Predict the 3D structure of the following.
Amino acid sequence: MKWLGRPETTLNFVSELMNIIVCIKRVPDSEGRIAVGGDGTSVDTQGVKFVLNPYDEFAVEEALKLKEAAGAGSVTVITLGGDDSKETLRTALAMGADQAILLKGKPSVDGLGTAEKLAEAIAGREYDMILFGKQAIDDDNLQVPAMVAELLGVPSATVVVSLSVDGKSARAEREVEGGHEIVEFDLPAIVAAQKGLNEPRYASLKGIMAAKKKPLEEVDMGDAESRLEVVQVMNPPERTAGEIVGEGADAVPELVRKLREEAKVL
Amino acid sequence: MSILVFAEQRGGALRQAASETVTAGRVLADTMGVELTAVLVGPPSITGESEKLGRHGADKVLLGSDEVYGEYLPGVYADAVVAAVTTIDPKVILFPASALGKDLAPRVAARLKAGLASDVTEIRFEDGRIVAVRPAYGGKVYITVAFKGEPAVLSVRPRAYMAEEAPRDAEVQELATPNSSQALSKVHMAEGAAKERPDVAEAEIIVAGGRGLQEAEKWSLLEDLADALGPGTALGASRAVVDAGWRPHDEQVGQTGKVVAPPLYFALGISGAIQHLAGMRTAKCIVAVNKDPEAPIFKVADYGIVGDVFEVVPRMTEEIRKLRSED
Ligand SMILES: Cc1cc2nc3c(=O)[nH]c(=O)nc-3n(C[C@H](O)[C@H](O)[C@H](O)COP(=O)(O)OP(=O)(O)OC[C@H]3O[C@@H](n4cnc5c(N)ncnc54)[C@H](O)[C@@H]3O)c2cc1C
Ligand SMILES: Nc1ncnc2c1ncn2[C@@H]1O[C@H](COP(=O)(O)O)[C@@H](O)[C@H]1O
């Protein structure tokens, strides 16, 4: 596998160098109409726009911020997918990433197969941090980041809402029930970004133009192994409309009575 | 042949999620005719809690009580669960889909090279295979998946299985504390907004407000209602009010917020956009208050009142306080 090597920084005084890898995924736009496929075992995304996974925008932005703060280093974006994922890699390059790698192969149904391919492609490369999104909004698995951490044996923090890096150690705040949890760990490490970690920048026209000339390496990885098999895809359980109990505050006593006696939820 | 359930505790006390996951395990164990074992790790004060796991149906408890489990360190907890797995060689391993469970389950699955189905709402055993139903695409579709191999690892969505009693005289066995060299990240609980209200994903009742409240200060109306409804009540919000900066993001319910399925959901001054519905349409009972009779929320609400939140909500608080005082 050709590793593009460190960018040729000619700084004589090399400040803290930050090499960051960001794993990103191409997903259907959340506004798109998602329907059950005709075969009943697939999801029909016909006519739906595909975009960079929203949570991965926070991951790319954080990588760019870390590189800018360090003053030197590189941001590499990587995805396991088909040729159509090149467009998503270009989006990240337009935001400011330096190089992109397309691992050609189908992601797995569950997270492990995808994590194995990513870990295989990343192992042996130099990185200070690998950034992920919290979840991909198509499968909503919330699995890949923690799995890659286990496979590579590096510390990791998921659902991160704030991050600070100081030399070779980092401190992250994670969202947990009822508050935040602070974790500290040494680099190299993995962080999965939650909404609110930062404000992702938009790709400028200059960025979009520059992206065309940035390196995009392709590596054939083969399809990821799925340990789960999709048996059926269904629409969410139907809700039938209920009743309007009444109008204004006077309807409240009747509502409370029904909640207690009929719905038995009070 | 057995099923293993990870019982989550925090600060030495079992969490609601633990009894729900044990119940899910008991239901599956009964259909498969196998034993249910719970693995419980925590600080020394946890020892007294193992009896409760028996009450919800655990036949055996593998208990790891040690200071090292005081806080959630992913590497240490994963070592403990893998040690439990090697002891009993389960066919199925269940985690709660809580903040901790969603972090720990993928690690254990990766170590075991096992498939993981996240946030499942239903688990079945069909012609020799474990099958599970889970929401995807922001709750727009529900996908049924089957496990090809063993063990099957699953995280169970909060409230998908309501905690139930199924008393067993659980045998407690000590789980040796593996010496975890990879205590990779030092953890301490942030002061964070240590709200006394539960997280929306795990609340009994959610009082959710939308732009209809007009401004942040009006949230006191919802807080009063939530207080009247009782401690298991959480505040929810639409994205419109989170983006307006009136409410924090962790209260946001919907496609890019949290997906919730509480027994009772109040949608107050919320129009009912599809992206909001994607987060709460599976609530058992939905009550909507909106001045617009045509608001889409009324199409999914079980009970609705057409009216002004500033008049209706205070009256609801008053009526519920009366009700609670009579209880
Ligand atoms: C990609 C994407 C993701 C999104 N994700 C989410 C999400 O996760 N969660 C979410 O909630 N939204 C989400 N949205 C936004 C969603 O589309 C709606 O814009 C949002 O839910 C509207 O919030 P709202 O109902 O509070 O406001 P509005 O739609 O403005 O509704 C306000 C309601 O209050 C009523 N009202 C006004 N005054 C009063 C009064 N005095 N008394 C009673 N009723 C009154 C009005 O009749 C109206 O029905 C998303 C949108 C997109 C594009
Ligand atoms: N096919 C993929 N290629 C690269 N990164 C991925 C892929 N799938 C998931 N990820 C990363 O893992 C995160 C969580 O995905 P998931 O575990 O599928 O919810 C995503 O936000 C991405 O950062």
Q: What stands out?
A: The longest strand of chain A covers residues 156-166. Chain A is about 25% helix and 35% strand.
